[in-house]
Write a structure and sequence with these properties.
The chain is of the alpha/beta class. Helices cover 29% and strands 29% of the residues. Strands 10-9-8-11-12-14-13 form a 7-stranded mixed β-sheet, sandwiched between helices. Helix 1 (11-24) packs across helix 2. The structure holds S-adenosylmethionine (SAM). The site of S-adenosylmethionine has 23 residues, from helix 4, helix 5 and strand 9.
């Protein structure tokens, strides 16, 4: 028997806490994006005015301890780890006992293969692809957002399935795990570029693209993007999508198309208005209260 302790921590402190927990005697530690839970567990995502980095501001640090440890001993280990990681006190946590043989299953069973369309599946590495003939993107949950389980990602993936044509160029603005760019490349796009403001996301996306043998160029968003693209997809949040309207729209080639996600139904008008001087947008699809806005730059 093991004791699994799930601690809530700010993402930028999660790694330090993870290291400190190992030092303090944990048998294993994993870090999960706290926003990868249920809708109710994701209060920040999509709240008007919330900064984009808040998407993975909160992490769950899950540490496994020997079940023989008594509560006082466990409390002392947690306190030592919290102190070593620079916390004033032990962050909020919950514990549960886990039968040894169920541990791996417990963690992995939360992430089953996700069918986006008949053509496209997202498959965790420990699963067999349910349809070997489909495009199967291998992605495991990690620190970068984008496993296909969130409706905003799904809306973008469905759009890519509809609009990618052989050899077209695609910009994935706010690539996170790289899931959208990888999907675009696998669907037949030519030049695919993914950019992100978070260097860790760029690194994760690089790893994921390599693992999927997907030709996707990935770079930090501070690096200027000179090109324009046939397709531009951005799953960020309402406020940054409004602020970034001139920058993102400038990357859409004449005749090219754009899809924006990360917008709640109630926020559609705000984004449409911000984009009106650049590209006219309309609601293309909706899923669980989230919408996808789409537009086309006039041109050839
Ligand atoms: C919701 S995640 C989307 C990840 C992935 N594209 C998907 O659809 O699942 C938003 C991503 O946008 C990035 N981001 C936020 N603001 C940005 C900005 N101003 N420029 C570039 N990337 C940004 C975040 O770091 C994050 O990786």
């Amino acid at each position: 028997m093991w004791i699994s302790v799930t601690l809530q921590a700010e993402a930028d402190k999660a790694e330090a806490l993870s290291d400190a927990l190992m030092e303090a005697g944990a048998l294993s530690v994993s870090i999960e994006d706290a926003d990868a839970g249920t809708e109710a567990e994701r209060p920040q995502f999509g709240e008007p005015g919330h900064l984009p980095t808040a998407l993975w501001d909160h992490s769950r640090v899950i540490a496994l301890f020997d079940g023989a440890a008594d509560p006082a001993e466990l409390g002392a280990m947690l306190a030592e780890a919290a102190r070593a990681a620079g916390f004033d006190a032990v962050p909020p946590f919950s514990t549960e006992t886990v039968a040894e043989q169920n541990w791996v299953q417990l963690t992995q069973s939360q992430f089953d293969p996700i069918r986006i369309t008949d053509r496209l599946w997202i498959v965790p590495s420990w699963h067999e692809a349910p349809d070997a003939d489909a495009i199967n993107i291998e992605l495991d949950p990690g620190m970068a957002f984008g496993t296909g389980s969130h409706p905003t990602t799904r809306l973008c993936l469905e759009w890519l399935c509809e609009v990618v044509t052989p050899g077209c160029s695609v910009l994935d603005y706010g690539c996170g795990s790289g899931i959208l760019g990888i999907a675009a490349a696998k669907l037949g796009a030519g030049a695919v570029l993914g950019i992100d403001i978070d260097e860790k996301a760029v690194e994760a996306a690089r790893d994921n693209a390599a693992r999927n043998h997907a030709a996707v160029r990935l770079q930090h968003s501070a690096v200027p993007v000179g090109d324009t693209f046939d397709l531009v997809v951005a799953n960020i949040l309402t406020n940054p999508l409004c602020v970034l309207a001139p920058a993102i729209s400038a990357r859409v080639a004449p005749g090219g198309r754009v899809a924006l996600s990360g917008v709640l139904e109630t926020q559609a008008a705000q984004v449409v208005e911000a984009w009106a001087p650049h590209i006219a947008l309309h609601v293309g699809a909706a899923h669980e209260g989230w919408i996808r806005l789409e537009g086309r730059r006039p041109g050839p």
